């Protein structure tokens, strides 16, 4: 797996910033350069009490736990990414959440990206997923036969949205869509991010008297082949920064309509400098996470 990390770092111009490949931790004096290179290089979780530190997009994870690659009702995909780590509360959530899949005729769920061993910024792919409380669940359900190692790398999820907003109505019934509601009704779940077209479809399908769970389902860019589940801050994590509560209502009105305007899709300034997070941008406790055995 290490060659993949080095290849990514080289492509991003970060190879020189990677610590010694054999290092399990990074001493404070060596914590220089982009934070994503540092957190992407450590090969072990921090042997500290479990804690989510900082915000979902500027933080780290102490005491991370690996989700087993296969459980009774889940399989982890894209093993080469090495992102099947999380706070113990996230591991517990995935176990109880996936156990509901047979109620809807599903063998289980396919798990995409969670978090790195010590959380923190990633070399590629996500701005969040930093404090051990995020998991991507594929819209392609798990099959009764477990995927092979090759299939975990090569098989793709169901991309149910064409362009910005056109839902594939034929493919939608074949997805794990029922599990979105299961996740939303879990008391530890704070938000679920989906493509705006998926949110609109859920609004259309849900009875007017049974819509409270929809508030947690938030439209967001991409998210057309998976839904992104985010847990709230655990009780053992006083340094976890809570998000504002979701707005009152089912989220099917003006806030969803906004995603059908040009507002969210205005191109960014190509001349704006790209900002790389460093350790100075993260909570001070994250230095201890990187330095821990």
Describe the structure.
The radius of gyration is 19 Å and the shape is globular. It is α+β, with helices and mostly antiparallel strands and 293 residues long. Helices cover 20% and strands 16% of the residues. It has helices at residues 2-11, 35-39, 88-98, 149-154, 178-184, 196-205, 254-257, 285-291; strands at 51-55, 58-62, 65-66, 70-71, 74-76, 85-86, 109-111, 134-138, 161-162, 166-167, 189-194, 217-219, 226-231. The chain has a 4-stranded mixed sheet. It contains 8 helices and 13 strands.
Main beta-sheet annotation = 4 strands, mixed
Mean of residue pLDDT values: 92
Radius of gyration: 19 Å
User: What percent strand?
Assistant: 15-25%
Low-confidence stretches: 1-22
In what order do the strands lie side by side in the largest sheet?
8-13-11-12
Give the SSE string.
Answer: HHEEEEEEHEEHEEHEHEEHH
* Number of E-type strands: 13
The rounded distance between the terminal residues' Cα atoms is: 21 Å
Approximate helicity band: 10-25%
CA-based shape: globular
Topology:
Blueprint: H1 2-11, H2 35-39, E1 51-55, E2 58-62, E3 65-66, E4 70-71, E5 74-76, E6 85-86, H3 88-98, E7 109-111, E8 134-138, H4 149-154, E9 161-162, E10 166-167, H5 178-184, E11 189-194, H6 196-205, E12 217-219, E13 226-231, H7 254-257, H8 285-291
Parallel strand pairs: 5-7, 11-12
Antiparallel strand pairs: 1-2, 3-6, 4-5, 8-13, 9-10, 11-13
Keywords:
293 residues; alpha+beta; 4-stranded mixed beta sheet; 3-stranded mixed beta sheet; 8 helices; disordered N terminus
């Amino acid at each position: 797996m290490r060659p993949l990390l080095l290849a990514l770092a080289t492509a991003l111009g970060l190879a020189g910033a990677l610590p010694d490949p054999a290092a399990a931790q990074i001493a404070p004096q060596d914590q220089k350069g982009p934070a994503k290179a540092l957190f992407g290089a450590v090969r072990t979780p921090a042997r500290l009490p479990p804690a989510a530190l900082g915000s979902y997009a500027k933080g780290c994870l102490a005491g991370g736990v690996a989700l087993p690659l296969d459980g009774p009702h889940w399989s982890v995909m894209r093993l080469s990414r090495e992102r099947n780590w999380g706070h113990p509360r996230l591991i517990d959530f995935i176990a109880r959440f996936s156990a509901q899949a047979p109620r809807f005729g599903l063998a289980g769920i396919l798990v995409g990206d969670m978090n790195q061993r010590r959380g923190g910024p990633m070399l590629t792919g996500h701005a969040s997923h930093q404090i051990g409380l995020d998991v991507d669940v594929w819209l392609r359900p798990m099959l009764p036969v477990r995927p092979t190692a090759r299939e975990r790398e090569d098989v793709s999820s169901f991309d149910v949205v064409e362009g910005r907003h056109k839902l594939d109505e034929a493919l939608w019934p074949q997805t794990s869509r029922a599990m979105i509601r299961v996740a939303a009704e879990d008391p530890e779940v704070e938000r679920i991010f989906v493509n705006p077209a998926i949110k609109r479809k859920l609004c259309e399908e849900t009875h007017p008297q049974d819509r409270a769970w929809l508030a947690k389902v938030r439209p967001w860019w991409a998210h057309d082949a998976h839904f992104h589940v985010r847990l709230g801050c655990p009780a053992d994590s006083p340094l976890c920064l809570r998000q504002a509560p979701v707005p009152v209502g089912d989220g099917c009105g003006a806030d969803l309509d906004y995603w059908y305007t040009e507002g969210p899709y205005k191109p960014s300034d190509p001349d704006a400098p790209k900002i790389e997070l460093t350790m100075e941008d993260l909570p001070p406790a994250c230095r201890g996470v990187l330095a821990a055995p």
